[in-house]
TrEMBL record:
Gene Ontology terms describing biological process: DNA-templated transcription initiation
Molecular-function GO terms, alphabetical: DNA binding; sigma factor activity
Protein name: RNA polymerase ECF-type sigma factor
Domain RNA polymerase sigma factor 70 region 4 type: 131-181
Domain of life: Bacteria
Classification via NCBIfam families: sigma70-ECF
Annotated family: Belongs to the sigma-70 factor family. ECF subfamily.
Length: 201
């Protein structure tokens, strides 16, 4: 992120916080709250649980800030904390009956996702809760990669770093997840091979 007088970089904000300007962390919260909430909603499906996960993520990040390695992306580090918090909350509520969520965030697609183009209209036309349920039909590794790509707006390298896998593995998980999601959304009316053929970074 380019630094401007109005919008300092993540690194500048973190340096200020670590130097004692703790109020600067509020700018980090403001910058990342919405995308984190969108990702948490895609994983948990309940507004309150998603908000709890995001709040805990910021608390953890603030508490562990001195352990952050600035050689790596702060956003990836933050997303990894959120994923862990979501997984813990999901395990705690695994036996609860799922309920419909009123306010659903819009699914956004990266412009460079060729696979997203034939799916964007279909997925954005579906209720968010329905798409979230379909994601449970994917393998856990595929579902997590798809969430990070399309809800978290992460690049493939960031996904790889966050999930602790190689770059080719991250791409493969998203690709296979998108193919399966296509099959589920279209009930077999769109060839999975078509999506696979056009998937490129």
């Amino acid at each position: 992120m380019t630094s401007t007088p109005e919008q300092p970089t993540d690194g500048e904000l973190l340096t200020a916080v670590l130097a004692g300007q703790r109020e600067k962390f509020a700018e980090i919260v403001q910058r990342y709250q919405s995308p984190l909430l969108r990702l948490a909603m895609s994983r948990l499906g309940r507004q309150q649980e998603a908000e709890d996960a995001v709040q805990q993520t910021f608390l953890n990040a603030f508490r562990w800030l001195d352990t952050y390695d600035s050689r790596y992306s702060f956003r990836t580090w933050l997303w990894t904390i959120l994923i862990n918090n979501c997984n813990r909350l999901h395990q705690k509520s695994a036996r609860r009956a799922e309920t419909e969520v009123g306010d659903s965030p819009v699914i956004q697609f990266q412009a460079d996702d060729a696979a997203a183009e034939p799916l964007a209209a279909m997925i954005t036309a579906e209720r968010h809760e329905h798409v979230r349920r379909l994601l449970t039909e994917l393998t856990p590794s595929q579902a997590e990669a798809v969430r990070l790509r399309f809800f978290g707006q992460m690049k493939f390298q960031e996904i790889a770093d966050s999930l602790g896998c190689t770059l080719p593995a991250a791409k493969a998980r998203v690709r296979k997840g998108m193919i399966r999601l296509t099959e589920l959304l279209t009930a077999g009316t769109l060839s999975a091979g078509r999506v696979g053929d056009h998937f490129d970074d």
